[in-house]
Recover the amino acids of this structure.
């Protein structure tokens, strides 16, 4: 075929294809426009998974009558004027592409009224061509209705999933913006049913309650990189990380509860997801994933937001700096603020059905939480685990101790596991693993799968103090083990490690080996301990930074406060 210039219709459909991947992309563009117009209330209505209808109504600045048509011209935008402007974009939109792109693949109606205008104006377009226009009364703001989306692009329509799936993508977009803009009232109705409504109070926690529910909201920890006193180098002081992260007790079994906003723009970032997962390392049970809402504020010129067709990915000038800042802020919140579970939480939980819409307690550290909420238990920061006095052992499994404020029940296995885990990690990082030779080498028989894992992680195991030599077909001699495992279940630890799926990377394995060694050398539940042994365990636990969970993420202790005891016994 000879080379020729494509005609306008083809060009605009191709361009539309970049912006309008599915109904949720339309919702995203329209909501971003409403936010750019400084709306305080945005309502989103959809029908038929967004294919039959998407309507976004806002109370923003509106468009003056003379410019309503212009908004649908390609590259028409009120948001950036010059090339220099592009270097410091603070609006969500800036390309002037969304409205013409959506219009090319749908039937679209707009009614808009700018402040000071006596009436609004309306315009109807069908596949990008104006079919009707005039004036119509309405209060300041804009309503855009999109019908029959992608009807004229069957190839793309075919790729859409069921209305239920498309609705869930739409709900996700609206939820993300509700989290990014807690000061805006969002309402989402799907097929005439309201599925999300946020109060627009300006408090992130209120959006979290609506998006994730009460249980998660109650267990969110406040993030603020300013609090930690680590402003860092002068060049980094303008990078600010705020938001909320879930305490490890509310982890989810699916990924996808991580939200990242750069200067309030919702983005996807594997880099930042990794930073958060790293910060939770050793705190979550295996296969669990955290919940986090991370806002990063940084000077516009330090991030390029113009690298992706739907603007959902960005490029940081200094990736490492952002990674480190996020990881540090999250880790700090987790280490300092994750509460030791208290008996009150169990007790208050029983009240849930009676007051379903009332938060049961204030989320751990949200200082800005409205005072109308009933006062709840305050968290016991893990850092300040007080000096504890031993009282005894319960069921051969729990250590009972007294602190300045009541009773502590410590799970002896979980607590010892945490202590050993921290110790082994520290020894490993200093390359000072204590090794113990076995008087009689032990034999280890492995199956082919275990054999492959052993061969690929041989060095890693050696680094942790195992001396393992080949001894015939799929049999090995174990000559030395990490000292903590001596006289303990070293074979159990090895077998557990060798049974893990092959192909995991070295970093994961390093953590895994430490966990496994700790688990198999820790005192068992059901093991009677002497008073001295229990005192020593408590003393060591007091030294550990993250004392309140074991490396698998289970709690190590429960706190029963003096106040609670007094209430239970009717003394208050
Ligand atoms: P962009 O957002 O990149 O500027 P769009 O095609 O999304 O491009 O919108 C074009 C223009 O239409 C915007 O620059 C803005 O001036 C106007 N506009 C669109 N939606 C709204 C709205 N809800 N309220 C006020 N103005 C709007
Ligand atoms: Mg836009």
């Amino acid at each position: 075929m000879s080379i020729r210039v494509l005609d306008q219709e083809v060009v605009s459909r191709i361009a539309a294809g970049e912006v309008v991947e599915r109904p949720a992309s339309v919702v995203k563009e329209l909501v971003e426009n409403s936010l750019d117009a400084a709306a305080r209330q945005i309502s989103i209505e959809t029908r038929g998974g967004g294919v039959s209808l998407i309507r976004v109504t806002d109370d923003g600045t509106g468009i003056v009558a003379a410019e309503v048509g212009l908004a649908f011209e390609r590259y028409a935008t009120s948001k950036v004027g010059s090339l220099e402007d592009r270097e410091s974009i603070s609006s969500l939109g800036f390309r002037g592409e969304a409205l013409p792109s959506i219009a090319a693949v749908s039937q679209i109606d707009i009614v808009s009224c700018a402040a000071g205008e006596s009436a609004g104006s309306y315009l109807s377009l069908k596949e990008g061509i104006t079919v009707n226009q005039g004036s119509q009364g309405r209060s300041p703001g804009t309503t855009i209705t999109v019908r029959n989306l992608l009807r004229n692009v069957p190839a793309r329509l075919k790729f859409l999933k069921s209305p239920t799936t498309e609705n869930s993508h739409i709900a996700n977009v609206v939820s993300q913006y509700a989290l990014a803009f807690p000061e805006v009232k969002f309402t989402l109705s799907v097929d005439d049913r309201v599925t999300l409504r946020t109060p627009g109070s300006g408090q992130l926690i209120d959006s979290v309650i609506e998006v994730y529910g009460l249980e998660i909201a109650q267990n969110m920890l406040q993030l603020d990189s300013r609090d930690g006193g680590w402003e860092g180098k002068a060049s980094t002081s303008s990078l600010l990380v705020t938001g909320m992260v879930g305490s490890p007790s509310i982890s989810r079994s699916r990924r996808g509860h991580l939200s990242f906003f750069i200067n309030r723009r919702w983005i996807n970032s594997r880099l930042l997801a990794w930073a958060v997962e790293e910060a939770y390392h050793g705190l979550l049970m295996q296969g669990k994933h955290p919940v986090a809402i991370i806002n990063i504020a940084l000077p516009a010129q330090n991030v390029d937001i113009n690298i992706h067709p739907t603007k959902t990915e960005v490029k940081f000038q200094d990736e490492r700096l952002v990674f480190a800042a996020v990881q540090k802020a999250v880790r700090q919140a987790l280490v300092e603020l994750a509460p030791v579970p208290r008996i009150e939480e169990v007790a208050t939980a029983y009240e849930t059905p009676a007051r379903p819409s009332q938060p049961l307690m204030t989320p751990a550290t949200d200082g800005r939480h409205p005072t109308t909420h009933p006062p709840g238990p305050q968290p016991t920061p893990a850092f300040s685990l007080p000096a504890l006095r031993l009282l005894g052992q319960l069921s051969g499994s729990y250590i009972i101790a007294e602190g300045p404020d009541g009773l502590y029940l410590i799970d002896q296995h979980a607590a010892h596991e945490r202590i050993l885990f921290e110790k082994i990690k520290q020894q490993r990082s200093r390359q000072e693993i204590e090794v113990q030779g076995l008087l009689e080498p032990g034999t280890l028989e492995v199956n082919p799968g275990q054999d492959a894992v052993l061969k690929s992680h041989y060095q890693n195991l050696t680094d942790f103090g195992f001396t393992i030599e080949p001894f015939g077909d799929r049999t090995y001699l174990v000559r030395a083990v990490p000292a903590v495992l001596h006289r303990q279940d070293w074979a159990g630890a090895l077998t557990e490690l060798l049974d893990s799926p092959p192909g995991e990377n070295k970093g994961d394995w390093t953590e895994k080996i430490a966990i496994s060694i700790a688990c198999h050398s820790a005192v068992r539940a059901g093991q009677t301990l002497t008073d001295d042994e229990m005192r020593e365990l408590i003393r060591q636990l007091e030294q550990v930074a993250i004392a309140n969970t074991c490396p698998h993420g289970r709690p190590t202790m429960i706190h029963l406060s003096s106040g609670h005891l007094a209430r239970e016994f009717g003394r208050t």
